[in-house]
Amino acid sequence: MNATLIDSLRVTSGGSLSFALGLTLLAGLFMWLALEIFRSGRRVLAENQQQRIALEKLRAQLAETKLRCREAEQAQTGWNGIRKFAVVKKVFQCDDVNAFYLKPHDGRPLPQFKPGQYLTFQLDLPGRDKSLIRCYSLSDSPHQKDYYRVTIKKEKSPADKPELPTGAGSSFFTDVVKEGDILNVKAPTGHFFLDMAKLNPIVLLAGGVGITPMLSMANAIAAGGSKREAYFFFGVRNRREHIHKEELEKLAAEHDNIHLHIAYSKPGEKDVKEKDFHHEGRVDIELLKAVLPSNNFEYYLCGSGAFMKSLTDGLEAWGVPDKDVYFEAFGPATVKKKATVPTQAETTHLQKVMVTFARSNKTVRWEPIAENLLEFAKSQGVKIDSGCCAGGCGSCSVAIKSGAVTYLKKPDATPEAGSCFTCVCRPKNDLILDA
Ligand SMILES: Cc1cc2nc3c(=O)[nH]c(=O)nc-3n(C[C@H](O)[C@H](O)[C@H](O)COP(=O)(O)OP(=O)(O)OC[C@H]3O[C@@H](n4cnc5c(N)ncnc54)[C@H](O)[C@@H]3O)c2cc1C
To answer: Which of 77, 110, 136 is the last residue of a domain?
Structure first.
């Protein structure tokens, strides 16, 4: 072998060595890469799985939160339809007036109500084929978590017609309902309430059983520890009608910011001034002027038609703006907010409006002086059921076949689509009702 051949062989064997080395390196690199890809794949898979688990957890948490929110919302806003309540206590107050303490039969929490709101009862009275719907204001503080309380006065027969029966619903409560009974109740509702977020001074004006929403308001102020100034005027004939007497006296004695003024229009022989009552006479504007430091308050009223008319007129004459006067009527409203009185142009238009009661086969011209569609129907001999006369209980709901209505006040409940609560509306234009 010559030197050139030996040299070339050396080069060849050196080249295949480096080639083998390179191949090994490359294979190692591939393996490392494959391992890395495998590892990161596994990591990604594991991360994905973790993320899926976390997402599922989150979804479950979200569903749980939604449920809690719904429960909380329900606890705030009440329940749909009827809920059964047991009468746990019935406490005689004074002549023909009893307080009823109610607890939910299902034992679940009570939704918080606003002081001034009312409950609607669906009463199954013996001998009646249809339930009777009646509304009663909650009379205790919304801070009371254990029970609802309503205070009910038995409605007497009209003075000029003593032969007529006493009030059906209130007599049932007074004479028939007893502790342990179960009642059908709709959730608290109503637009007449005290805004507890505000701190401005208020005047509560109550006549007779109209005290119930006011007592709830005063109790709410006291139980919430609020220092909100409240002048509380309550007018009755005498001690025999003095509803929740001890509770009112305790409230005023324990809370400097609640100034109680009881007025007896016909004090009994044994009624003692400064002990049982503070003023002889009615709660009227003169009394307010004598007691209040100024007229600069928000006023809340509930009482008979005459009571509310005299006070709203008096407050207006005293310069209290309409926006500072709030009232609740326990029957057909005798006092109207100015906004609901038709203008001259509206009256002229309303004089031409025709109302058809389709089922009764009757078409009549609307009378602009008519209070509302319910009263108008009655005056035309058309029978429509009624209950609260405040747009809350839905008893007077009637389907509108054509036309539209104007609400005189915002109904406390929402009428079904295509229907109207006849007790709180009048026609907007020609109207055909399914009545
Ligand atoms: C929002 C709201 C809250 C209320 N809160 C309270 C409250 O806290 N406490 C309370 O006691 N009340 C309250 N009421 C009033 C209550 O709802 C009832 O209207 C009241 O109890 C009378 O109902 P009733 O079924 O007993 O009388 P109804 O049977 O409706 O009778 C009413 C009157 O008509 C007379 N009458 C009976 N038959 C006839 C006839 N054929 N012709 C003419 N008249 C007749 C009766 O003798 C009675 O005087 C509230 C009302 C509303 C709208």
So the answer is: 77
Domain count, the chain: 4
What is the whole-number distance in angstroms between the Cα of residue 169 and the centre of ligand 1?
7
Q: What is 288-312 written as a DSSP string?
A: HHHH-S-S-SEEEEES-HHHHHHHH
Ligand 1 center–CA 91 separation, angstroms: 20
Segments forming the whole domain that contains residue 174: 83-189
What are the helix and strand counts (H, E) for the chain? 8, 19
In Å, how far are 58, 249, 262, 413 from 118, measured between CA atoms? 40, 24, 24, 12
CA angle 211, 216, 218 (to 5 degrees): 90
In the prediction, which pLDDT does 3 show? 54
Question: Which residues fall within 8 angstroms of residue 421, CB to CB, at 6 or more apart?
Answer: 391, 394, 396, 397, 411, 413, 415
Protein residue closest via CA to atom 4 of ligand 1: 136
pLDDT at 204 over 80: yes
| Residue from 135, 214, 335 to probe ligand 1 pocket by mutation (most atoms less than 8 Å from CB) | 135
151 CB under 6 A from ligand 1? yes
CATH number for the domain spanning 329: value is 3.40.50.80
Taking every pair of Cα atoms in the chain, the longest distance, rounded to a whole number of angstroms, is 154
Q: What is the CATH number of the domain that holds 185?
A: 2.40.30.10
Which pLDDT belongs to residue 347?
86
Q: Is the CB of 98 under 6 A from ligand 1?
A: no
Do 104 and 177 sit in the same domain of this protein? yes
Contact 154, 95 (CB under 8 A): no
pLDDT in tens, 221-279: 999 999 999 999 999 999 999 999 999 999 999 999 999 999 999 999 999 999 999 99
Report strand pairing: 202-207 vs 230-236: parallel
- For the chain, give the number of residues: 435
